[in-house]
Amino acid sequence: MFRLHTSLAAAFAVFLSAGAALAIEVKAAVLRIDYPTLLPVSRYDLPPDDLGFAGAALADEDNGTTGGFLGHTYETITVAVPPEDADAAMAKILEDGIRLVVLQSRKEDLLRLTDQAAEAGALVFNARAADNGLRDDACRANLLHTAPSHGMKADAVAQFAVWKKWTDWFLIAGSNPQDMALAEAYRKAAGKFGARIVEDRSFEDTGGSRRTDSGYVMVQRQLPTFTQRAEDHDVVIAADETDYFARFLSYHLWTPRPVLGSGGLVPTSFHGAHEAYGAMQYQTRFEALTGRYVRAEDYNVWLALRVVGEAVTRANTADPEGVRNYALSDEFELAAFKGQKVTFRDWNGQLRQPILLHDGMITVSVSPQEGFLHQTSPLDTMGLDRPESRCTAFE
Amino acid sequence: MKSLLLSTSLAVLMAVPAYAGKAFISNERGNTITVVNTETWEVEAEFFAGNRPRGITASPDGSVIYVCASDDNLVRVFDSTTYEELPSLPSGPDPELFILEPSGKRLYIANEDDNLVTVTDTETRTILAEVPVGVEPEGMGMSPDAKFVVNTSETTNMAHFISTEDYTIKHNILVDQRPRYAQYTADGSRLFVTSEIGGTVSVMDIAEDGTPTLVHKISFEVAGVQPEWLQPVGAKVTSDGRRLFVALGPANRVAVVDAQSLEVLDYILVGQRVWQLDFTPDEKYLLTTNGNSNDITVIDVAKEQAIRSIQVGQQPWGVVTIE
């Protein structure tokens, strides 16, 4: 408490002496929809109650410290609701005068809520939904994405596999629509980087019983036979967005091969063991504040609010239009603990960023991989590039 | 070739056999300090320096070496002749870089995790003040008249100008992303601040009363190297104010900049992930720590050429030289 006092006093004194700074009160909201879902395959993946919100708390601290020197204050409210209450929650946020909203929801809800926000002139950040369509024909002018897309993640995996010369893929996709959408991203990535899908199978979601004593016995008997008689392949690529089988694959294949994608080596925007590029400092701050390891969801929310912070600091604006314009301008850049600055694609509002490849314990590699070149930015080798995106809302 | 050899051997013969200078290199991962003889360029010793040693500096008379033992949350102190450990200094949590005022009395330490600059008295070994600064304080520079300490905060992206009289911040200047290091010219008229992720060096003119004005940003370009990897970290200016050397991290190069015109003149290839720099006291050589190749590179300052590399400990981070 004492420290807070001195820091505010010191900051205030300088702010006064500088004279030119403009006091800005920045208010934002994080709205999270909690969907009824089955338990994750691994207990380690159980979502904490403050998933995403913890990233907002850290962002408020980080932005607030900087703001202290400039006369800017930051306050972010966090709201978690079941799907049926989402529209009312968004209405309340807008009623309270908040025009900067970070959303953690699925595609359909995201689009509806973004349109609701647009009517009030609010800017929305997508911190969860990975669907390519949101960066394509379903894009919205008031929607920016800090969450990476399926395309970016699949391309990150594909580049690594190709760099390793593991170009013959056995693709195993889940049977739910989200799994099939992800599988499509991997098929596209294979074509983009010169890998071949030599075997393409769907693993039917018939429900599991992993918690029963005999659950693993079934997995151990079923998966080898399921993966039998596949064409010769270098790796198995798993597309399991709903999280029901991919984590079992690594040790239950007929032919022993590395697994990448939804199991084995997983692409992610961030994880709690990432140390390089100054990330230790981020991890230390996050853990001291929240008492747990960071999740990608927390990082995506933190990024969104840091984008707001940069706009306020550099362009003196917390107005949704002003933040959007600054974020999409050439002046915008943000350090994000991944070795290079992150910026926005001005054709679809997607944050271009490196993708970490995580084996559950360490950062195995970071994509884009060496040798994948691009005329604008190597980061644009991942996800929808300007000529590919059908988004017109940013023109 | 023959004449070169001849002139080199002559130079060696004619060199005054003064007592050899030393360079002390902190090895972040190896938890040691490597001592290199700056005449023979041989490794003389390696000793335990605490956990995660990073920032390193010497007392004005060269008798004492200070090192930020980041994971021990203190500054460790060593005798520069015997390498014996002396009583430590309190530093506040996670000290990364620091700067000693010319008198050798007060040490200004950046506490990366706590958004503080800690001022420690090296004689009484007590903390004199804690100054709140931006998020992730790192770089520490001091004006030659010792009136201002400049701290750079990596996530706030500011250079904070702290008065050494009352320990309050007098000026804040926004710079590009992830500022790493602050270096004044010897006459105090200019300040250079490197930005690792922004890829630039901010140049400030400093008025008589210490007031900074941002006047220019130096950028870098190397054919065949992705712009993303040109990440300015450590920097040093020659005392005559002619040349600025900038370590470019994963680009494995040190940029040579005309410190007057601010034009980039050349890039010197050194070891991998070049981090911090220090001149030998006579400014004949510039030493670079190369974190990924576990060595240091010696640059001939007059010729602006790398002349040799010396293997040191694991992940060399900082370097300081004494006579």
What this model shows, in words?
The complex is a heterodimer of chains A (395) and B (323). Chain A is α/β, with parallel strands linked by helices. Chain A folds into two domains: 2-148 and 270-353, Rossmann fold, CATH 3.40.50; 151-267, Rossmann fold (3-Layer(aba) Sandwich). Chain A has helices at residues 2-18, 53-68, 86-95, 107-119, 150-163, 177-193, 215-226, 246-249, 279-290, 296-315, 320-328, and strands spanning 24-33, 72-81, 100-104, 123-126, 143-145, 168-174, 196-203, 235-239, 259-261, 266-268, 343-344, 351-352, 355-358, 363-367. In chain A, strands 2-1-3-4-5 form a five-stranded parallel beta sheet, with helices on both faces. A four-stranded parallel beta sheet of chain A has the order 7-6-8-9, with helices on one face. In chain A, helix 2 (53-68) packs across helix 9 (279-290) and helix 10 (296-315) crosses helix 11 (320-328). The longest helix of chain A is centred in the C-terminal third of the chain and has 20 residues, at 296-315. Chain A is globular and about 70 Å long. The termini of chain A are far apart. The model of chain A is unreliable at 1-20 (pLDDT under 50). With 323 residues, chain B is mostly beta strands. Chain B has one domain: Methylamine Dehydrogenase, Chain H. Helices cover 4% and strands 53% of the residues of chain B. Chain B has one helix at 2-14; strands spanning 22-27, 32-37, 43-48, 53-58, 64-69, 74-79, 85-90, 95-100, 106-111, 116-121, 126-132, 137-142, 148-153, 158-163, 169-174, 179-184, 190-195, 200-206, 212-219, 235-237, 243-247, 253-258, 264-269, 274-279, 285-290, 295-300, 305-311, 316-322. Chain B has a four-stranded antiparallel beta sheet with strand order 3-2-1-28, with no helix packed on it. In chain B, strands 4-5-6-7 form a four-stranded antiparallel beta sheet, with no helix packed on it. In chain B, strand 22 and strand 23 (264-269) form a beta hairpin. The longest helix of chain B has 13 residues, at 2-14. Chain B is globular and about 45 Å long. Chain B starts with a helix and ends with a strand. The interface between A and B is medium-sized, with 31 and 33 residues.
